[in-house]
Amino acid sequence: MSLADWFKAREDRRYTAANGDSPKTDVPEGVWSNCPSCKHVIYEGELVTNLRCCPYCGYHFRVTAYERLEILVDSDSFEEFDAGLVSSDPLEFSAAKSYPDSIAAARKNSDLKEAVVVGRATIGGHPVVVGVMDFRFIAATMGSVVGEKITRVFKTAIEERRGVLLVTASGGARMQEGMLSLMQMAKTSAAADRFAAARLPYISILTDPTTGGVTASFASLADVIFAEPGALVGFAGPRVIEQTTHQKLPKDAQSSEVLVQQGMVDAVVARWELRDEVTLAFDHLMGMGESA
Predict the structure, then answer these.
(1) Which residues, including other chains, have CB under 8 Å from residue 144's CB and lie 6 or more apart?
(2) Which secondary structure element, helix H or strand E, spans residue 126, and what is its range?
């Protein structure tokens, strides 16, 4: 590459401001990230090494489904299944853009076919079935395919006598599927109930944000419920609640730290400690079926 071409490529590169106080400071996109909490500028390599947690204040950035699997499950143990399940357009929904166009954009943005990735794995040597939601795919909303894949997680785990780990992040129901989306709450809850009857352990991890029908169904039905620090967890978002009730919510009313005080969450666990805590929970719970 000639020097002139190098300068042209440099000018064509997209840049983002380092922080709101220094609008003239250019930071190449993908090289540095700005922490939304403490405002420190963090080198991307350091962020990756730190499991996408701010090294200064501990703020937990969102991670992808496959990054999450790499953090939680034993190395090279994950085997995905039902990857071919894809959404149709039963209502022929169209608003600003059609539902198929929204799905196509989500697939391009996330490199996923749907909002949840499921498969077999081991965690601390324990055989489990894992499901991880990815917020990049239409805000990880729960449509028919998400509900079906979560249901199959429980079904497969019962058949193979495995534990279940589900990691949630969701904006709620996928409204492009209307009532079909809302029915997934009952479907996944019934699957979780059948799994509980089989006396096998189910652990859920609530990440930022976990809201709507996911919170109101399978995410809250686990034997042990962990949450990441600072995660927004609730049925409706704070703005919706305030607009409906015309009252200001207390600060952090829907944060994981407040919910653990109210008993909805068992423990708030930092990302770098999650694998050990999940392993410990499975250590205690995996024998429950044999002792029934």
Answers:
(1) 87, 88, 90, 177, 180, 181, 184
(2) strand 126-133
What is residue 250's DSSP assignment? P
Alpha-carbon distance of 234 to 180, in angstroms, equals 21
Of how many residues is the chain composed?
292
H/E stretch holding 41 reads: strand 41-43
Residue 289 has pLDDT above 60, yes or no: no
Q: Which residue has the higher pLDDT, 250 or 159?
A: 159
- Amino acid 98: pLDDT: 94
Residues contacting residue 101 through CB under 8 Å, at least 6 positions apart: none
Q: What is the mean pLDDT of the chain?
A: 90
| Domain ranges, ordered by start, for the chain | 1-61, 63-285
Q: Which CATH superfamily is domain 63-285 in?
A: 2-enoyl-CoA Hydratase; Chain A, domain 1 (3.90.226.10)
Q: How many CB atoms lie within 10 A of CB 37?
A: 13
- pTM of the predicted model, to two decimals? 0.87
- Higher pLDDT: 16 or 216? It is 216
